[in-house]
Design goal:
The chain is of the alpha+beta class. It contains 16 helices and 18 strands. The protein is rod-shaped. Bound molecules: adenosine-5'-diphosphate (ADP).
C-alpha cells in the first residue's frame, strides 16, 4: 500500500508523542519501582528497629515473645522473627511452634545485622516458599536479631498493575493522537486530492475542470488561484482556437495553394487548393508527412531547400505534370525555422490570355475579310467603266452593302459578347415570361423562314424566369436563325418552350444538316464554325452560340446540343424558373397550342 502524504504527516505528527510517551513510561515505571522498593525497605527497617527496641525492653519469656510476635505480625502485615544469640528462632509471627524451625544464625541478613547493626536483603524464603524482603536489626545491647519480612511479590504485583494501567493510558493517548493527526491530515488531503484530480483533467486537455475551495486557508487560496489560472487558460485557448479556425477558413478559401513546411521538412499545414494544384486526392492526409513523400517535383523541393537555407523568398514557374498538367507559380518564403510555399495555378490565367490573343487575331481576321471585299469593290467602282456598267455597277454596290452588313453584325455580336463578359452585373434582372420572348422572336423570324422555304412552328407555355428580356431574345434569335440557316429548303424548325422540373425548357429542333459529332464540343467556342464558307455566306459571325452559352450561363442556366448529321439538331436551353406563386388561369397561359408562324 502506498502511503499518501497525509498518512506520512499523521505518522510524523504522532511519532514524537508515541516515542515520548514510551520513554516517559519506561523511566517513570522504573523510577516508581525503585521508589516503592526504597519506601518498602525503609518502612520495613523502621518497623524492625521498633520491634528490636520492644524486644530490648524485655525481659520476655519465650511464650510472651511468641505471643507478641503472633500479634504484631498481622498488625504490620509483615513476618516477624526473633533470632537468639545462637541463631535459634525465639519467636516467629508466621509459625506456631518455633522449635520446628531450623537455626537461622547463618541467614545472610542475620549475619549482616549482627556485624553492622541492621541489614536489608531480598531473597527467596525456603520457609514460606516466596520472594521476601528481609530487614534485620540487632537488638540494642544484645546479640539477638529481630527480623521483619514482607512479601516482595505483593509489592511487585501492585507495581505491575500500576504500570499496566500506565501503559494502557499511554497507548490510548498515543492512539488518539494518531487518530486526530490522521483526521487533520485527511481534512487537508481532501482539497489537495481534488486539486490533483482537476490538474490531471487539465493535463488531459479538459480546461473546464474546476475545484470548489472551502474556507480561507492556504489550500483554499491555492484552489482559487487554480480556478483562475484554468479559466484564463481556457479563454486563451478558445481565443487561439477561434483565431486558428479563422485563419484556417481563410487559407481554405484561398485560390492559392498554401503549404507550411517545418525545419525537418515535415508539412504542418496544407489547404485544399494545394491538394488540387499538386494533384493529390482530396482526402490525402497532408499534415505530418515529409514534403518529398507528397511532392515529387524536384524543382519545388529545390525551392523549399533554397528558402530554408536562408536565400530569402524564391519563386519559379513550374510545369507540373499532373494529371492534369498545370503551369504552377511556386513561391517559397522562409518563415521562422520553416518555409511557406504558395502555389498558384497559372493554367487558367494563361488559357484566358491565350483566348484573348486568339480572339483579337480572330476578330482582326474576321474584320479584314469584309473590309478587303469593300476595298476591292470601291476600287473597282472608281473605274468609270465599271461604275457605268449596268450589271457590274450595282453588283459591286451590293457587294459593299453585304459586307457592310456583315461588319455591322460582327461588331454587334462582339459588343454584345463583351458586354455580357465585362459587365454582367449591369444586366437587368426582372421577372418575365419567356414565352412572350420566344413568340416575339419567332414572329419576327417567320418571314426569314418562309424565304428559306423552312416551316417554323412554335409552341410556348408560360414560363416565368428572372433576367433580361433583350439578352434572352438574342438567345432565342441566335438559335432559331441558326436552325433556319442550317436547314435546307423544305425542312422544318420546331420551337417549344415549357416549364419542366423547375426550369423553363426551350427546345429548338431542326431537320437540317446536323453537326458532326467531333464538332459538337467546339461549336460554342468563339468563331468556331463547322463550315466557314457556309456560315459566312449565310451572314453568320461565328459568335452566335458563344453569346447563347454566355447569356444562358448568366441566367443560371445551361445549353446542350444533340445532333445527327443530315438528320437535324436540337438545342436545349434550361433556365431556372422564377420563385413565386404558381401560374394561374388562362390569362397567364398565353397560347399554349402549336402555332405555325
Ligand atoms: P454562325 O454565326 O457561324 O452560325 P454560331 O456560333 O451561331 O456561328 O454557330 C457555330 C457553328 O455551329 C456554325 O457555324 C455551324 O457550323 C454550327 N451550327 C450552329 N447551329 C447549327 C444548326 N442548327 N445546325 C447545324 N449546324 C449548326
Amino acid at each position: 500500500m502506498r502511503l499518501g502524504w497525509a498518512g506520512k504527516a499523521a505518522i510524523a505528527a504522532s511519532l514524537p508523542v508515541v516515542v515520548g510517551l514510551a520513554a516517559f513510561l519506561l523511566v517513570t515505571v522504573d523510577r516508581l519501582g525503585r521508589v516503592t522498593r526504597e519506601n518498602l525497605e525503609r518502612s520495613l527497617v523502621r518497623e524492625a528497629h521498633g520491634a528490636a527496641r520492644a524486644v530490648a525492653r524485655g525481659p520476655w519469656g519465650p511464650l510472651e515473645m511468641q505471643a507478641w510476635a503472633r500479634l504484631l505480625g498481622p498488625e504490620t502485615g509483615a513476618r516477624i522473627t526473633v533470632i537468639g544469640e545462637d541463631g535459634t528462632v525465639l519467636a516467629d509471627s508466621d509459625v506456631e511452634d518455633v522449635s520446628t524451625l531450623e537455626n537461622h544464625g547463618q541467614r545472610p541478613e542475620v549475619i549482616e545485622a549482627r556485624s553492622k547493626g541492621s541489614a536489608i536483603v531480598p531473597r527467596h524464603s525456603r520457609t514460606v516458599g516466596r520472594d521476601l524482603l528481609y530487614a534485620a536489626v540487632r537488638v540494642p545491647d544484645s546479640a539477638r536479631v529481630v527480623r521483619m519480612a514482607r512479601d516482595l511479590d505483593e509489592a511487585q504485583q501492585a507495581l505491575r498493575t500500576a504500570s499496566r494501567t500506565f501503559w494502557f493510558v499511554a497507548v490510548g493517548v498515543a492512539g488518539a493522537g494518531v487518530l486526530i493527526a490522521a483526521l487533520l491530515a485527511r481534512g487537508l488531503a481532501r482539497p489537495l486530492g481534488e486539486l490533483t484530480a482537476a490538474a490531471r483533467r487539465v493535463e488531459a486537455g479538459d480546461f473546464s475542470a474546476r475545484v470548489y475551495p472551502r474556507g480561507r486557508d492556504e489550500v483554499a487560496r491555492l484552489g482559487h488561484a487554480f480556478n483562475k489560472m484554468t479559466g484564463q487558460l481556457q479563454e486563451t485557448l478558445a481565443r487561439a482556437e477561434a483565431e486558428a479556425a479563422r485563419l484556417s477558413a481563410v487559407l481554405e478559401g484561398m485560390n492559392e495553394g498554401v503549404v507550411a513546411v517545418d525545419a525537418q521538412e515535415r508539412i504542418s499545414f496544407g489547404n485544399g487548393a494545394a491538394r488540387e494544384i499538386l494533384s493529390l486526392p482530396p482526402d490525402t492526409e497532408i499534415a505530418g508527412k515529409r514534403i518529398y513523400e507528397l511532392v515529387r517535383e524536384p524543382r519545388i523541393l529545390g525551392l523549399v531547400q533554397a528558402a530554408a537555407s536562408g536565400r530569402g523568398p524564391v519563386e519559379a514557374e513550374i510545369r507540373h505534370d499532373g494529371p492534369p498538367r498545370r503551369l504552377v507559380q511556386v513561391r517559397a518564403a522562409p518563415v521562422g525555422t520553416g518555409v511557406i510555399l504558395v502555389l498558384r495555378d497559372m493554367s487558367r490565367l494563361r488559357r484566358l490570355e491565350q483566348m484573348r490573343t486568339d480572339f483579337v487575331s480572330n476578330v482582326s481576321h474576321e474584320l479584314r475579310t469584309p473590309l478587303a471585299s469593300i476595298a476591292a469593290a470601291v476600287e473597282t467602282l472608281q473605274d468609270d467603266a465599271a461604275r457605268g456598267d449596268p450589271v457590274e455597277g450595282p453588283r459591286f454596290v451590293q457587294m459593299i452593302q453585304r459586307n457592310l452588313r456583315r461588319l455591322e453584325a460582327l461588331l454587334d455580336d462582339i459588343l454584345a459578347l463583351s458586354r455580357l463578359e465585362s459587365r454582367p452585373e449591369t444586366l437587368p434582372r426582372e421577372p418575365l415570361d419567356l414565352a412572350g420572348v420566344v413568340r416575339a422572336a419567332c414572329e419576327e423570324l417567320a418571314e426569314r423562314a418562309r424565304q428559306a422555304g423552312v416551316a417554323l412552328a412554335v409552341r410556348a407555355e408560360r414560363s416565368r424566369v428572372v433576367g433580361d428580356a433583350a439578352t434572352l431574345r438574342r438567345v432565342v434569335d441566335n438559335l432559331v436563325v441558326n436552325a433556319i440557316t442550317y436547314t435546307p429548303q423544305g425542312g422544318r424548325v420546331d420551337v417549344a418552350l415549357e416549364p419542366r422540373e423547375g426550369a423553363a425548357v426551350l427546345d429548338v429542333s431542326d431537320t437540317g444538316i446536323g453537326i458532326p459529332e467531333e464538332d459538337l464540343d467546339r461549336i460554342f467556342e468563339r468563331f468556331y464554325r463547322v463550315d466557314k464558307a457556309r456560315s459566312r455566306s449565310a451572314g453568320g459571325t461565328g459568335l452566335g452560340l458563344a453569346i447563347v452559352k454566355h447569356a444562358v450561363g448568366l441566367h443560371g442556366g445551361v445549353v446542350e446540343v444533340r445532333s445527327k448529321l443530315a438528320r437535324g439538331s436540337t438545342f436545349t436551353v434550361r433556365i431556372p424558373l422564377a420563385a413565386g406563386p404558381a401560374p394561374t388561369g388562362a390569362a397567364d397561359a398565353g397560347a399554349p397550342g402549336e402555332t405555325a408562324v
